[in-house]
Amino acid sequence: MSGSGVGYPSDLTDEQWALVEPLLPAARVGPKGERREKHPRRRIVDAIFYAVRTGCASRQLPKDFPPLYWYFTWWHDDGTVERLHDRLRSRVREADDRAAEPSAGLIDSPSVRTAAGVPGQAI
After folding, report:
1. Which end of the chain has fewer CB atoms at under 10 Å, N or C?
2. Most confident of 1-5, 32-36, 105-109, 110-114
3. Contacts (Cβ under 8 Å, ≥6 apart) of 28
4. pLDDT (tens digit, 9 = 90+) per residue, 46-77?
């Protein structure tokens, strides 16, 4: 919950935060000229989950969330987002008594659209 006392359904529980926090990269506190983190990491993750859950753009987040673009870009580019996704997917699958890694993937053809003017037959 934020310092303003506002909580959102998408905010992490303490148990969820304990799972996610170790997967984040070390905080930036580096040498001169390097940008330092100034927002609590848990609020950054809460902001990301809020944006994903509601579908809002990061600039449309409620004002009690810190800006997240810089963090999300950094964590995406260094592989953190993918590691988080993989770890959480594995936990959900294992909790369902399934193998941690999926054995197959599926693309539903109605969800794959082609551009107008592209022939329907292979050439």
Report:
1. C
2. 105-109
3. 34, 35, 36, 37
4. 999 999 899 998 889 999 999 888 888 889 99
Is this model's pTM higher than 0.85 or not?
Answer: no
Q: Could you tell me if 47 and 70 are in contact, meaning their C-beta atoms sit under 8 angstroms apart?
A: no
Whether 107 is covered by a domain: the verdict is no
Distance, in Å, from the CA atom of 12 to the CA atom of 15, rounded to the nearest integer, reads 8
Other C-beta atoms lying within 10 Å of the C-beta of residue 71: 22
Full residue range of the structural domain in which residue 51 is found: 14-27+34-102
Sign of the torsion formed by the C-alpha atoms of 64, 67, 71 and 73:
positive
Could you tell me if residue 83 is inside a domain? yes
| Structure token digits, residue 100 | 């941690």
